[in-house]
Amino acid sequence: MMDQAQSLRQLVSSQEPKLAEKRETSARIITVCSGKGGVGKSNFTLNFALTLKAMGKRVLLFDADIGMANIDVLMGVSTKYNLYHLLKREADIEQIIQLGPNGLPFIAGGSGMDELFSLSESDLNYFTAQIALIADSMDYILFDTGAGLSKETMKFITSADDCLVVTTPEPTAITDAYALMKVVNRTYPEISFKLIVNQAGDEREASVTSDKIRMAASRFLQMDVSYLGHISSDAHVVQAVKRQTPFSLAFPNSVAAKDIHRLALSYLTIDDKKDTKVQGIKGFIHKWLKRSK
Predict the structure, then answer these.
(1) Which of 5, 95, 120, 254 makes an SS bond possible with 236, Cβ 3.0 to 4.6 Å?
(2) Host H or E run for residue 105
(3) Of 75, 62, 72, 71, which Cα lies nearest the Cα of 27?
(4) Would you say domain 26-288 falls under CATH 3.30.1050.10?
(5) Is the predicted pLDDT of residue 142 greater than 50, yes or no?
(6) Across residues 123-152, what is the average pLDDT?
(7) How do the domains of the chain map onto residue ranges?
(8) More reliable by pLDDT, 245 or 10
């Protein structure tokens, strides 16, 4: 649509003068993962991104699920281009970035993710420069990864500034969430995690679920896992998925929408207290693809 194309051109062009300036802060890179599928990870990521944006933050959402990319489906948005077209230089960043609800910029998933690991130095530099056109002006970049712990997801987790793990009170989800942290911890003990309990019956069930994982991580891995919050089991979420509309927009007064607002606020409060320096998108990409600057 012309309206979207014009908005995207303005989004990209408005950042070009800023590229010559050094920002005091860089975008914080957030990877969202889960030990297993079916826990509502992608739905959480989408609504978390929209909630951060509604709070005045500049957010870019990146669907990094190689096999089961579905962020565009959850938004009811049809996408013509994805990462593959950028890698093949068949489209530039302006064309592959789409605008979702409330003007949320996102990059659709699909084929092409595996080709990132075999880029030539020239192609890597082009890819990084294109992403930086948008990313350098963002506060947060969210990567929605595939369920489980593939080698690609491992790279996202170990390269990001923050890693959010989504689970549910279901025993298999709890076990798999802990297993994911355990495997990462074996090789990368410096990586920390923030836990989200989705589809909780109530606050007590969420707290019990969180305690099980955090206590096991502390006892057996000597790892301090932060509990970020929970999202209640809510029929409005299912209705929103069927409508292909994010539940935080379709039902802003629902319990789930209020929960994710509280959770996002908690994350921002924690982030504001941090004094650690973020690496920015260029540092992330080079670390992610195991290249040095």
Answers:
(1) 254
(2) strand 105-107
(3) 62
(4) no
(5) yes
(6) 85
(7) 26-288
(8) 245
Rounded CA-CA distance 254/262 in Å is: 13
Distance separating alpha carbons of residues 238 and 45, to the nearest angstrom: 16
State both tokens at 272: 């504001």
Q: How far apart are CA 43 and CA 236, in angstroms?
A: 13
How many CB atoms are closer than 10 A to CB 269? 9
User: Taking the model in full, what pTM does it have?
Assistant: 0.88
Three-state DSSP class for 223? coil
State the alpha helices, DSSP H only, in the chain.
2-13, 41-54, 71-75, 83-87, 93-96, 121-135, 151-159, 171-187, 203-221, 235-243, 247-250, 255-273, 280-288
Split at pLDDT 50, 70, 90, the class of 8 is low
Please provide the average confidence, as pLDDT, over all residues in the chain.
Answer: 85
CA-CA distance, 280 to 138, in Å (whole number)?
10
**CA–CA gap between residue 6 and residue 15 (Å, rounded):** 14
